Amino acid sequence: MANVAFIGLGTMGYPMAGHLTKAGHEVTVYNRTFAKAEAWVSEYAGKAAKTPQAAAEGCDIVFVCVGNDDDLYQVTTGEEGAIKGMKPGAILVDHTTASAEAARTLNAVCGEQGLGFIDAPVSGGQAGAENGVLSVMCGGDSEVYKQVEPVIDAYAKSQSLLGDAGAGQLAKMMNQICIAGLVQGLAEAIHFGQKSGLDVAAVIDVIQHGAAGSWQMVNRHQTMIDEKYDYGFAVDWMRKDLGIVLNEARSNGARLPVTAIVDQFYSEVQALGGNRWDTSSLLKRLQSMDK
Ligand code: NAP
């Protein structure tokens, strides 16, 4: 069993750190809002530290799951950041959805200090984290990955090393590109069905088993019909992710016309007040044009 730290007890990190404890690892947590770390300690066996540096001291692996690139740098290379506390040979695993550039930078910083680094963004949402069935996309050195793979298993249904540092983040970008176009397609289909006077739920009951079926269709169609948009990944987070994707595409030359327009649509959802609505609220944007 490993001695590990977990930094960032948000929607995702809180249950992920819990799975590490349940798997028998010694876990020290850090959260910027300390009350959340205290709540975590009272729910699971473990310790809470006051800084990322203190949490990382003596640990074999330090996990991070915070918001974006800036947050990631703050808790790793910043003042009282985790890297300052890590012992030689320890490994930093980053579960934040961040840029590939941040992964390459942290990989280099860790390498200079005799530390390992794996970028490991996740997919599967809050439910995936709570049920310990996340998909984890990893980038980094294969010898380093072998050491963290069995520990990540505590909350993963599937995981894979997909290339050098940054490859995990690039894979997560592919994931978000797929979702963006797919959710807009689903929103347009539901909108069209409603305009046609069809019983949309009945139609989806049939077509979800055919070639049009998707996780989004199965899990979100009813909440979309009910105009309930409080079921998971928020529009603000999606725009952060699509910003990372479109930036990367500018540097690698990929053409992403649908992703770019869906990002624009999400900015219109934000203008409707939907910052915290889930990503399926693209339907609400279409419906709002009728009013
Ligand atoms: P969240 O609930 O907003 O939690 C963010 C966590 O990061 C909190 O613990 C927050 O601390 C901490 N944090 C943020 N900025 C910080 C800073 N500058 N210094 C120290 N701590 C900081 O976010 P989440 O939903 O868990 O998402 C975390 C990451 O996973 C994001 O990159 C997101 O894109 C990705 N992700 C999320 C989902 C999802 O469905 N939610 C799915 C896949 C991937 P406080 O408690 O003090 O605010």
How does this structure look, described?
By secondary structure, the protein is α/β, with parallel strands linked by helices. The protein folds into two domains: 3-163, NAD(P)-binding Rossmann-like Domain (Rossmann fold); 170-288, N-(1-d-carboxylethyl)-l-norvaline Dehydrogenase, domain 2, CATH 1.10.1040.10. The chain is built from 14 helices and nine strands. Strands 1, 2, 3, 4, 5, 6, 7, 8 and 9 form a nine-stranded mixed beta sheet that branches. Helix 9 crosses helix 11. The radius of gyration is 20 Å and the shape is elongated. The N and C termini lie far apart (58 Å). 44% of the residues are buried. The model has no long low-confidence stretch (mean pLDDT 97). The structure holds NADP nicotinamide-adenine-dinucleotide phosphate.
Provide a compact summary of the structure:
With 291 residues, the protein is an alpha/beta fold. Helix content is 54%, strand content 13%.
Helix and strand layout, with pairings?
Elements: E1 3-7, H1 13-22, E2 26-30, H2 34-43, E3 47-48, H3 52-56, E4 61-64, H4 69-76, H5 82-85, E5 91-94, H6 100-112, E6 116-119, E7 122-123, H7 125-131, E8 134-140, H8 142-152, E9 156-161, H9 167-195, H10 200-207, H11 215-225, H12 235-252, H13 257-271, H14 282-288
Parallel strand pairs: 1-2, 1-4, 2-3, 4-5, 5-6, 8-9
Antiparallel strand pairs: 6-8, 7-8
Helix pairs in contact: 9-11, 9-12, 9-13, 9-14, 12-13
NADP nicotinamide-adenine-dinucleotide phosphate binds next to helix 4, strand 7 and helix 7.
